[in-house]
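[agent] plan:
  1. take the single chain provided in the ticket
  2. run structure prediction with default settings
  3. attach structure tokens to the ticket
  4. add a short note for the reviewer (M.T.)
[agent] executing step 1
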Amino acid sequence: MSSTVLLGKRIVGVMPPSVQKVYRTLQSGKRMHVGDIESKTNYSPRTVRQALRQLKSAQLITQIPDMYDMRRHYYMAVGA
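[agent] step 2 finished; step 3 output follows
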């Protein structure tokens, strides 16, 4: 495992449980929309958006624009 992945796991370990679950969901390696994450975690849209905001500020995920609908984004875990 790279040092970035280990550091990421350590940072996620001190975050709220909802953020940890969203991060684990994104570690599958697939790009996901907010709706995909909501259905996998059973969290509300607001909870998912807040978790994504925290993960993005910690630089643990990347945000990729959807080329078919520029209002939407995909999210992926860094290093997944």
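[agent] step 4 note for reviewer: The mean pLDDT is 89.
[agent] ticket updated
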